Amino acid sequence: MTTQTTDIKREFKTPLGVVRCGLICNRQDNVIETKKYENGSSEIFKTDGHNIEIVSFKIRVPLYNGETLTDSFGWIFRIEKTADIDEKLETYCLLDNIYGEITFDTATGEHLDAIQADSNEWTLHIGTEDGEILNSRAENDDWFPPRLKNKVDFYQSITEMKQNGFVTKIPELKQGEKIHIQYLTAYDKRDEQKVNTWLAVDEFKRKLENWIGIW
To answer: Which pLDDT score is estimated for 110?
Structure first.
């Protein structure tokens, strides 16, 4: 019997290319529910073993330092294991369909893994939480299973950094366990004196939830 693979994909067009963000799973039913938040919206899917909510939103501007940017988008994957079934899940956020000549670099920070893409005119960042902050959430039972404490840290994560973004392999969860994965992307006109797009993708889970209105 062949296992069906489904790619639940969302796209965000930028002047540098198309940011694709999504989830790959064994199989998936149709959307079972949609939600509207104060500053975002979501779709909820049900697979054989998981409930998956994909939250889409714009990053709050102006940023905490008062700067703005051209545009942004963010996605949160809220995944709950609902049945004791072996089911592989993978999330990703990648810059594809690149327009013209682009250079890539890493742009990590405290609690942040990020990549930077530059063209002659534009700068784009994609960011996600690093292993250290995931471990902190495990310690606090904050949408990362406490039993996975010390399985992720500064040097290792469930998320792999690619040249053009990130791929996260969701660990095998036990029934009732939940996990939160976030990807943020922002772009603006290139300016070597500004770090606004980097700051935009460097955000804590709780602050995002407060902004979006998730409770």
So the answer is: 87
Q: Report the pLDDT value the prediction gives residue 5, as an integer from 0 to 100.
A: 65
Place of tokens 């069906």: 4
Q: Which residues of 161-191 are buried (b: 16+ CB within 10 A; e: fewer)?
A: beebbbebebeebeeebbbbbbbbbbbbeee
Predicted local distance difference test score (pLDDT) of residue 147: 94
Q: For 26-164, where are the E strands, in sequence order?
A: 31-37, 40-46, 50-57, 71-81, 89-96, 103-106, 112-118, 122-129, 159-162
Structure tokens at 192: 């070597």
Cβ pair 160, 183 in contact under 8 A: no
Low-confidence stretches of the chain (pLDDT < 50) are 1-3
Residue 78's contacts (CB-CB under 8 Å, 6 or more residues apart) are: 52, 53, 54, 55, 143, 178, 179, 180
* pTM (2 d.p.): 0.94
Rounded to the nearest 5°, which phi and psi values hold at 160? Answer: -105, 130
Interacting residues of 205 by C-beta distance below 8 A, sequence separation 6+ = 129, 137, 142, 143, 180, 182
- Contact 64/55 with Cβ under 8 angstroms? no
Are 68 and 87 in contact by the 8 Å Cβ rule? The answer is no
Report whether 182 contacts 204 (CB < 8 A). no
The answer to whether 213 and 40 are in contact (CB under 8 A) is yes
